[in-house]
What we know:
single chain; alpha/beta; five-stranded parallel β-sheet; 6 helices
Amino acid sequence: MLVGKENKINSKIVDEISYVFPIVFKNYEDVMRDIDTMYQPRILIVNLMDVGQVEEEVISKLKEKFPELKCIALHCYQSLEMIQKTLDKGYDDYISIFDLSEGFLKLLIEQKVV
């Protein structure tokens, strides 16, 4: 499940990932309001470019609702320091939006999702 704002970028990301792995989009505001979904995700991807000020609340809510799932941060960071700061917030892994096509399947295998 990709969590973020409804926009063309996230629509494109879902399309790209869907070639490799079934995924749906969920608006982060719905996550915050705890709107239930019939979809049971196998992995959580948070588009950090969308959640901004509420990032900590979003990850907390996701980990509370889906404690057994891996939570992946998605952003455009290339600096190892920025990536590590992101991981220190509680994410299980990080993927750059620039490496999405090449890195996503590898990430799924590393996280033992597929």
